[in-house]
Design brief:
two-stranded antiparallel sheet; 23% helix; 92 residues; 3-stranded antiparallel beta sheet; single chain; 47% strand
Amino acid sequence: MSIPINRWPFKGRYLNGEATFKVALANGVLFVTMQSLRVGNDTVPAEFMQGFQQQNLAQEVNNDPKKAAALSKLESIEVKDGKLTLKAKAKE
């Protein structure tokens, strides 16, 4: 994973590491939060992670009308054993 760091003095730099995410879909709204982050061999401290754990990393997706319309057609989303499973709503 590579996340751009746009705040001064880090503008133009990226945070590179391994992350674990929690993914959920509720009422057509996608929620993606970072649960853990490792940079190199170091785990990022819990104090730093609190901000990431509370931030919905999919907010821009939810704010896009076309993407939100596509999400509204899904009943559920699940990541298990490294596989993403999308379940469509039954046709009305």
